[in-house]
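Please decode residue identities from the backbone states below.
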């Protein structure tokens, strides 16, 4: 970031990050977009434009044409494989190493946070790194799925499906509970690249704020969370988060709490 009017805001954000002993981070599609991964709706172009979203990402759509759904997700997985973590992913992984009580929750299913070094992101909407059996519930790495089968099956005979949350499906209760607990105890909530409209994930920053946390939003575009934030940095995460990093070492604040 080179704009001098942003400097006081960056300094304030850096001070908050340096002070925080408990940090909750929520990331959305804006972070993945900077790695060249389109959002679900943006990806529906060309061949996929004629399909309704629920034909491609719902249980009803899967039951109606499982081969179509698998073609869609194999295409999406290929896009993810070709992408790399961007500076925002790496900066968030660096924050995890700095803050004693750190939780990252993401709405993204691409696995880029893990590839950047984040140790245990809460993947609220699942992950394209895995598939699961709709009969027995077993989860397998995506790489174990035979590419020559239009609709792969588990050893038990059940159909395999991408391990992601589809329309009309609930989030995993344990994952959501962990995210809610982390948001409730956070001193600072950092919301990055999320529109703030996809529930229930979008409510997590508000849970943190109601519990007393400061809310720091990083997003250049329209986001429901921006006007509600204590500080809104209207920049791309890939530029803003790395710009904060060199300021953290010199920012005033409490010493980091020892782990354990």
């Amino acid at each position: 970031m080179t704009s001098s009017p942003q400097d006081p805001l960056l300094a304030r954000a850096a001070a908050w990050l340096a002070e925080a002993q408990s940090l909750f981070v929520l990331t959305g599609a804006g972070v993945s977009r900077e790695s060249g991964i389109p959002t679900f709706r943006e990806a529906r172009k060309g061949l996929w434009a004629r399909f309704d979203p629920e034909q491609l990402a719902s249980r009803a759509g899967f039951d109606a044409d499982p081969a179509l759904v698998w073609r869609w997700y194999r295409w999406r997985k290929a896009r993810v494989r070709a992408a790399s973590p961007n500076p925002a992913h790496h900066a968030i992984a660096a924050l995890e190493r700095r803050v004693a009580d750190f939780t990252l929750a993401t709405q993204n299913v691409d696995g880029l946070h893990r590839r950047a070094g984040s140790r245990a992101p809460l993947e609220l909407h699942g992950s394209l790194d895995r598939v699961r059996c709709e009969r027995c519930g077993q989860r397998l790495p995506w790489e174990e799925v035979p590419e020559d089968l239009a609709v792969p099956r588990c050893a038990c005979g059940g159909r395999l499906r991408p391990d992601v949350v589809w329309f009309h499906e609930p989030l995993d209760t344990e994952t959501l509970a962990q995210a809610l607990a982390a948001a409730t105890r956070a001193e600072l909530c950092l919301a990055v690249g999320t529109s703030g409209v996809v529930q229930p994930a979008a409510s997590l920053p508000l849970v943190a704020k109601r519990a007393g946390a400061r809310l720091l939003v990083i997003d250049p575009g329209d986001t429901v969370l921006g006007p509600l934030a204590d500080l809104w940095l209207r920049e791309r995460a890939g530029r803003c988060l790395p710009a904060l990093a060199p300021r953290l070492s010199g920012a005033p604040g409490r010493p980091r709490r020892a782990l354990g």
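Observation: The two ends are 36 Å apart (CA to CA).
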